[in-house]
Amino acid sequence: MLNNWLRIAFINYKKNWLSTIINLFGLTIGLTGFMLILMHWNDEESFERWNPKKDQIYYFQTYNKKENSYGNNISIPMANRAKEVIPGVEDYVLFKSSGMGFKITTKNKTFYQEGGMNVSDNFFEFFPFKLVDGNYKNALKDGGVIALSTTAAKNLFGKTNVAGESLKFNNKNFIVTAVYELPKENSQIKPEFLLKPVEPMKSDENQWGNFSYGCFFMLKKDVNLDQIRQKFIKDIFEYRASLDVAEAGVTIQQYMDLYGPNDSVLTPLDEIKLHAKASWFGPPDFKTLMILFTLSVLIVILSAINFINLKTAQASQRAKEIGVRKAIGSTKTNLILQFLLETFIICFASYLLSLALTELLLPSFNKFYDKEMKMTDWHIFFYSFAMVIAVTVISGLIPAMYLSNFKAIETLKGNFARSKNGIWLRNGILTLQLIISSFFIIGGLIVNQQVKYMMNKDLGYSGKQIMMINFSEENPKPWLKYERLKNEMRKIQGVTDISYGEAVPGNGRSSSSNMDFRDKSIEGQHGSMDFNYLKFINVKLKKGRWLDPNLASDTINNVLVNEAFVRKFGWKDDEALKNEVRPGFDNKPYHIVGVVNDFNIRGLKTEIEPIIFFHYRETDWKRFDVYNIQLKIDPNDIDGTVKRLKAYWQNNVEQGYPFDYYFLDQKFAKTFEKYQKQQTLFTILNAMVLMVALLGLFALSSLMIEQKLKDVAIRKTLGASDKTLIFGLTKQFLWITLIAVIISIPISYYLMNEWLKDFAYRIDMPVLPFVLSLVVLLLLTFSVVSFKAYKATKVNLVKYLKYE
């Protein structure tokens, strides 16, 4: 019986070779896209799974109700108190300054090592990297010790057994206490060397408001996270507020409403990459991943729709076969199993082809996402094969049930071919396919328009020919270094202007604190700078005046603010110039002397934040945060100027350090990269969808028009013109296309509007993509179907009428 089924299957594959190829091609493309996106998802979900303590380690984040924002920082006193008073908390580890680099000197060489991290001394209890040399006990206990990765140890000493060796950087001597091997598995936490910032941590022990550390908490097994969260609110946040309410003159609840945090989020260690609300290690983007995965599944569904449509369209060709088999005793179950087997053979062949195609495309996909994925995860094979089974059942069962219900007597009499059975099923499935195609066209056009809008939007500043050079971490008085370099580097040919700014577009290094005015408080970014910085980057003054180096008060307590700062307090520009604010980073009032136009620092996805601008000497601790020098370059000799600057820097400023620089406009352009990649992927998926849909439409229209060739011959004999015949054969498909687009419009509008909500600066929902979707699909449908219809008008009349 099985042998007979297989022979019938291959006879039908050969007979309907076009639809067989289209089914194979469509399913192969769909499964390949599904596999690649699934591999990407699995890779993103695999971060930190290497850690044997992952089930107990949680990443701490705060929530500020007033700002509706999440933070990724904590203060040392808050972490200490959590361990002391919350029963479910066993321990915590603090970290900061991820990615720092130093020029490190050993007995035999000097090497610039990047990837360092400041941590508290119990780091290895949370992250038990494989120990290669030394001992983890007291490895980070004081400020004179350092732990190295095997890579860093080889870079510095040429070997890994270096515990007890000494090295020097930042004018301090250190002893290597441990050498560890970083995990080969995916991890966002891969420090090349580890230090404990003893002095800074000691000075921050009682600073409840100094939220400058990231934190992981070790919780007891099977702990109730909601209870822990409630404890944080009551025993940490409210307690912290109670310490300051007397001085602030407000109640505990009022204090929390003004300054926050109001709540906390604890994200499991192995979910940080995709599911954290805010992260030190890069912004999570689970939503985009889900969109891509959904789109890849839709392509598979389209392929399944093609299969169902083509199988039901071929029904008339197999009607007599089914009638004969029923007449000789074949059961409905046998017929269904036979059709399912035919479907499975096509699906399995597509699965094998998709495995080969995925392997072929994987290097390019890895390059696109900067990954090193390999087809070694059994989940990929399991879930993709499960998809094959699902497609087999869905796309095989519907036509199988439909075909197996034919009545033997009717089919043997030949009545089936002239009946209208199956028309509603085919039309309904074709409509669904065109709805999906319409959504992809609309979505692709809207994504393109949004990305184009972002690329062309006026950012409120100009970063052209502005070169930023970062200082090394080894600067005891960095502001003096900047002032010296400012005078010396002016003499270099090609340098036209110099300045410094903390809030650099595209960099995102600026810090923030509360800004108080009477009984109101907002969260504002700090923008310490040189006097000329805002004019240097072509920001416009809206009201008041610039800071003036000739006025002593402009280095004491005078500041500029942006429009967002004024709006947040509900002032008008003139009112702002009459007011003083008290920043949380200082104990004196600051007087606003000017309002500048808003300009984008972090990108266009988030709104422009309130920023307060002041001279770096105005606040004591900000002088120590001067970290860059920015130079405006002569556009006529950019390459030559960069070479001269590099030579000067490496010979006279930071010998042994890399020349760490970038141009502001290029750096900000990187904030668009993620959306440009989304645009590229959407375009590729769009092309795949249209290709699968149009091939399916072509094959379906071919089969349906072939069934009408006798009618065409009769009408042509009676005098119908080719034009009338073509229109008659195509109008049904055009009506289906029109209905499909109309149905897709509200669906596409809702989904794309939700996507646009992720952007603070976005286009208004355009009308053109919806119109173009209708026009494009109508034209494509007409082109595909009319081609086959035209061929149908050239039929041999004698062939179809000789028996009439």
UniProtKB/TrEMBL annotation:
Keyword terms of this UniProt record: Cell membrane, Membrane, Transmembrane, Transmembrane helix
What GO terms fall under cellular component here?
plasma membrane
Residues of the ABC3 transporter permease C-terminal domain = 294-405, 685-796
Where found in the cell?
Answer: Cell membrane
Q: Which residue ranges does the record assign to the MacB-like periplasmic core domain?
A: 20-231, 432-646
Major subcellular site: membrane
Q: Which GO terms describe its molecular function?
A: transmembrane transporter activity
Describe its membrane topology. Answer: Multi-pass membrane protein
Q: Does the keyword Ribosomal protein apply?
A: no
Chain ranges passing through the membrane = 21-41, 289-310, 335-358, 378-403, 424-447, 681-705, 733-752, 767-790
Under what name is this protein listed? Antibiotic ABC transporter permease
